[in-house]
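Sequence design from tokenized structure. All designs in this work follow the same two-part layout: the structure record, then the generated sequence. An example of the structure record is given first.
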């Protein structure tokens, strides 16, 4: 038996354009005797940076699965009363930023499906698939399209898994389905009693395994293990499926590993206190800053970061250059996703909602400003203007990643290629566009060296255009692909709007 619950729908605001956005964070726990919903809640808190549009937790107790999800931050979706009501020993958690499908309740995760035998399946997905159209055709042939009202590649995976599990069980269904799935995916999913985790053969997105005193944890980042008191065991290997139940942990290979970890995780996406492939993210970012100072030195009085993501690289730049490090920009720690639309006056202030200058520190100084990346350039343009208005004599911008020239199809929601500032301008053109005195980007070679990973094991497609997983033609890829295909077939995107009960129930109720 399987049930779903939900709270009502909230309005949502547009995402700020200045930052690249990751798709999701996933978390799973198998721990009899523990409050798995609360463990998952805190695990998602540690992964909140990976997705702020929606959050959800499923809990299974051996007999049924209950899913609670909604639009909003983890702290907005869950409270003590909800968490206490989610009882069981297996949990799957998810925080979402959309790269496939719109921001609707139906597209929040974990996504839920029922098999033909009545068993439930709850699934959370981090990444982005590139053969979504092919999977949709397969799901349509099996009659599993439109049942949940969702329009995501994640829901397609859940539907296909549930369909395959009818006569062979979820584990065997996964072993047969996953070799046919192309793209980036880290999955945590469960039935009523077993926790599963899987990582695509390229290992584009991180996924780790941890040990509790009385159970196991899987999570997108090691920082989520730390917050729930789990000890790091190892990474889930590319091409590996893990199953955890009362019999213990078992591992299966559904594909040969061809590692291509995302280099942008080191630049921006992962928390600084996370470790990826044995390399600390903070240490990597400091080293990037050191190398940036060697490649693009500057005569200046102060090195300042754009907080918080530029801070480690700014520290490294200051160490290598001998220029003092300082704080000149104050970040409002409480500005994240807001459900209140800003007034026109506030909107025109732009970056000042997040950052404000320390004029006494800035006035009369030649500044080196270190940021993690440039996408459209709007943030840097506003920042340079703000620093000059605060009295800076010179502003030398240094970027701790190479120019972003290509979109990502593996789970990062960059701007389109036409909107990427580095795609249409050379270095001096970008410098003039943002108003800096000088501009320097770290080289791809130096960035890769800072990760201490072989170049052959990293995906750097957003910088060099070399996509390790072949892409389909343009018409068969994109954030709203499934909604577009649904319109082409039915004349509408087939949404199922519900509040107060699950999407499957919404299909049955008058």
């Amino acid at each position: 038996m399987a049930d779903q619950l939900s709270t009502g729908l909230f309005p949502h605001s547009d995402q700020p354009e200045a930052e690249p956005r990751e798709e999701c964070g996933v978390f799973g726990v198998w721990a009899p005797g523990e409050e798995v919903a609360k463990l998952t809640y805190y695990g998602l808190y540690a992964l909140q940076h990976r997705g702020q549009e929606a959050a959800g937790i499923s809990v299974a107790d051996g007999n049924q699965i209950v899913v609670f999800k909604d639009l909003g931050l983890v702290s907005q979706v869950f409270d003590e009363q909800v968490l206490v009501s989610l009882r069981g020993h297996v949990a799957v958690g998810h925080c979402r930023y959309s790269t496939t499908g719109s921001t609707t309740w139906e597209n929040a995760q974990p996504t839920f499906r029922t098999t033909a035998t009545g068993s439930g399946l709850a699934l959370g997905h981090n990444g982005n698939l590139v053969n979504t159209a092919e999977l949709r055709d397969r799901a349509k042939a099996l009659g599993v399209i439109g049942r949940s009202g969702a329009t995501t590649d994640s829901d397609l995976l859940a539907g296909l898994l549930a369909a395959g599990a009818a006569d062979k069980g979820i584990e065997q269904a996964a072993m047969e389905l996953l070799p046919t799935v192309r793209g980036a995916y880290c999955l945590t999913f469960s039935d009523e009693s077993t926790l599963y985790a899987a990582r695509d053969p390229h290992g584009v997105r991180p996924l780790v395994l941890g040990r509790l005193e009385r159970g196991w944890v899987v999570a997108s980042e090691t920082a989520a293990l730390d917050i729930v008191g789990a000890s790091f065991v190892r990474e889930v290997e590319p091409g590996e499926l893990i199953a955890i139940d009362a019999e213990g942990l078992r591992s299966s290979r559904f594909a040969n590993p061809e590692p291509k970890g995302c280099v942008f995780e080191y630049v921006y996406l992962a928390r600084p206190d996370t470790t990826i492939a044995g390399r600390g993210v903070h240490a990597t970012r400091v080293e990037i800053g050191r190398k940036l100072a060697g490649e693009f030195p500057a005569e200046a009085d102060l090195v300042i970061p754009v907080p918080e993501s530029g801070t480690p690289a700014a520290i490294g730049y200051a160490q290598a250059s001998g220029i003092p490090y300082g704080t000149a920009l104050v970040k409002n720690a409480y500005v994240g996703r807001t459900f209140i639309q800003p007034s026109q006056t506030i909107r025109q202030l732009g970056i000042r909602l997040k950052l404000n200058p320390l004029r006494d520190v800035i006035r009369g100084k030649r500044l080196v400003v270190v940021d993690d990346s440039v996408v459209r350039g709007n943030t840097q343009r506003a920042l340079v203007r703000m620093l000059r208005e605060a009295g800076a004599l010179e502003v030398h911008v240094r970027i701790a990643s190479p120019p972003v020239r290509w979109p990502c199809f593996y789970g990062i929601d960059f701007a389109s290629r036409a909107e990427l500032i580095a795609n249409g301008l050379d270095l001096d053109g970008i410098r003039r566009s943002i108003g800096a005195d000088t501009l320097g980007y770290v080289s791809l070679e130096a960035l890769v060296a800072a990760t201490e990973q072989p170049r052959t094991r990293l995906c750097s497609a957003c910088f060099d255009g070399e996509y390790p997983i072949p892409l389909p033609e343009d018409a068969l890829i994109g954030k709203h692909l499934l909604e577009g295909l649904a319109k082409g077939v039915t004349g509408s995107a087939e949404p199922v709007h519900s509040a107060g009960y699950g999407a499957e129930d919404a299909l049955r109720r008058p």
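Residues 22 and 112 are 22 Å apart (CA to CA). We note this feature because it recurs in several other targets discussed in the main text.
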